[in-house]
């Protein structure tokens, strides 16, 4: 009974927070950044690629290379956000939700440029004297003491929003449904003990990586994220090429449904738009602020350079990976059935289109990607806790975090999605507010960078 009450409350809270004002803040804010910058993020996308392998910044302050910072930021989105999140978007809002994910990502490129440039521009020292980045430090260092409550607001929302419950929940679901049940390791109606055991195993892995702190995290994500994305894209590319004749119809369905409203969203276009924006926020985190914590740890003295690296995020995880996942789901037709939800829908889509072990491959890829997400969210949460109570105590967060990993393994999907949606909405408010107020300073720095240092 108590669980039902909590689930209903979280659903109502998420629905309230993701109203028209927040959609305007995220999409309208992104459009403002794009116009205010005179389309600079689009004009220098090619240059941002070359920065990934730059070696000249190795002696600069920070803890991660450009490549590791982007990999760490992407590890917070790739996996569940791009594989399970797309399935949830289609299940709730229909195919048209994918179109609004595209729109959100296109403006999110500019948003990422501003928020992550600011994360380096206004790095601050924590209570142990270490340089840190993220919206809370941007607000504290760049906006003055009267805005300090907004910094704490973000830190609290970030602490709750980066809990690993969703990632672990969906990871356990795909391992159970595609591997454990077919192998007879557990049963469809009685899987609590299996879920709990897998949750405990995952908690042990998180503890090992977590005790190694950020350098080990950067090393892990720098290997896991690129390799798993390549494997997933190869599998997806093979499936889509094999069914190339169905791709144009699926793309037409996405565009047509975006303006008509699917029955799953009650035939209301506004519901389709909100669903797309929600899932895009979970997919690429543009305007949410968590990714700024990773890019704020990059080894560089040049904020604009890191902002240019960061803006690759929405291109990779939403415009490329999410689109491929959506096409596979739509071509397979599994989205028209209510039999599957979340990550299982994606796995079943691959199984229908490429039945020779694809579901198991997807399960293994998603396992690696979601583990990297869980590792990254531990880092985000510990930084938020360190800002709130002191960096000297943030290492203790790992013990609470592994408990949350176990809880995520046995939690309800709907409760988990509603909690994450609500916290992401709350994180967006201080992140976008700070970015909009400080946007003129980013523009001044960008003009100087483009005119003087672009050829460096």
Gross morphology is globular
Q: If you compute it from the alpha carbons, what radius of gyration comes out, rounded to the nearest whole angstrom?
A: 21 Å
Question: Order of helices and strands, N to C?
Answer: HHHHHHHEEHHHHHHHHHHHHHH
Distance between the termini: 62 Å
Judged by helices, strands and strand pairing, the structural class is mainly alpha
Strand % is under 5%
Q: Could you tell me the mean pLDDT?
A: 81
- Tally of alpha and pi helices: 21
Tell me about the largest β-sheet.
2 strands, antiparallel
Question: Strand order, biggest sheet?
Answer: 1-2
Q: What is the tally of beta strands?
A: 2
Please estimate the helix content: over 70%
User: Which ranges are low-confidence, i.e. pLDDT below 50, for 5 or more consecutive residues?
Assistant: none
Structural commentary:
Helix content is 75%, strand content 1%. It has 456 residues and is mostly helical. A two-stranded antiparallel ribbon has the order 1-2. It starts with a helix and ends with a helix.
């Amino acid at each position: 009974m108590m669980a039902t009450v909590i689930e209903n409350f979280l659903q109502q809270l998420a629905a309230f927070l993701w109203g028209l004002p927040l959609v305007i803040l995220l999409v309208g804010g992104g459009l403002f950044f794009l116009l205010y910058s005179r389309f600079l993020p689009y004009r220098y996308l090619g240059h941002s690629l070359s920065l990934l392998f730059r070696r000249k910044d190795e002696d600069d302050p920070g803890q991660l290379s450009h490549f590791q910072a982007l990999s760490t930021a992407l590890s917070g989105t790739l996996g569940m956000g791009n594989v399970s999140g797309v399935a949830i978007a289609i299940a709730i809002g229909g195919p048209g939700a994918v179109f609004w994910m595209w729109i959100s990502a296109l403006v999110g490129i500019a948003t990422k440029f501003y928020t992550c440039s600011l994360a380096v521009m206004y790095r601050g020292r924590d209570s142990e004297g270490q340089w840190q980045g993220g919206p809370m430090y941007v607000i504290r260092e760049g906006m003055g003491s009267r805005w300090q409550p907004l910094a704490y607001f973000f830190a609290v929302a970030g602490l709750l929003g980066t809990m690993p419950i969703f990632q672990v929940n969906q990871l356990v679901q795909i391992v159970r449904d595609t591997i454990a049940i077919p192998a007879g390791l557990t049963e469809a109606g009685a899987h609590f003990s299996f879920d709990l055991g897998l949750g405990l195993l995952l908690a042990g892995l998180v503890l090992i990586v977590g005790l190694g702190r950020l350098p080990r995290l950067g090393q892990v994500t720098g290997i896991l994220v690129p390799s798993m994305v390549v494997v997933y894209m190869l599998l997806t590319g093979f499936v889509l090429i094999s069914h190339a004749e169905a791709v144009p119809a699926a793309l037409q369905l996405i565009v047509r449904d975006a303006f008509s409203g699917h029955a799953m969203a009650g035939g209301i276009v506004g519901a389709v738009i909100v669903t797309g924006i929600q899932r895009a926020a979970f997919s690429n985190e543009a305007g949410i602020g968590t990714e700024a914590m990773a890019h704020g740890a990059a080894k560089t003295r040049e904020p604009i350079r890191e902002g240019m690296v960061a803006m690759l995020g929405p291109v990779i995880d939403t415009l490329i990976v999410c689109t491929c996942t959506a096409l596979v789901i739509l071509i397979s037709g599994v989205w028209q059935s209510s039999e599957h939800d979340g990550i299982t829908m994606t796995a079943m889509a691959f199984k229908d289109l490429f039945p020779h072990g694809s579901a198991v491959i997807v399960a293994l890829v998603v396992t690696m990607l979601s583990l990297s997400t869980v590792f990254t969210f531990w880092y985000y949460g510990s930084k938020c806790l360190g800002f709130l109570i002191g960096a000297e105590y943030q290492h203790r967060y790992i013990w609470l975090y592994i408990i949350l990993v176990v809880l995520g393994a046995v939690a309800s999907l709907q409760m988990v999605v509603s909690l994450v949606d609500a916290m992401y909405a709350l994180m967006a408010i201080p992140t976008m507010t700070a970015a909009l107020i400080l946007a003129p300073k980013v523009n001044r720095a960008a003009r100087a960078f483009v005119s003087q240092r672009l050829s460096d």
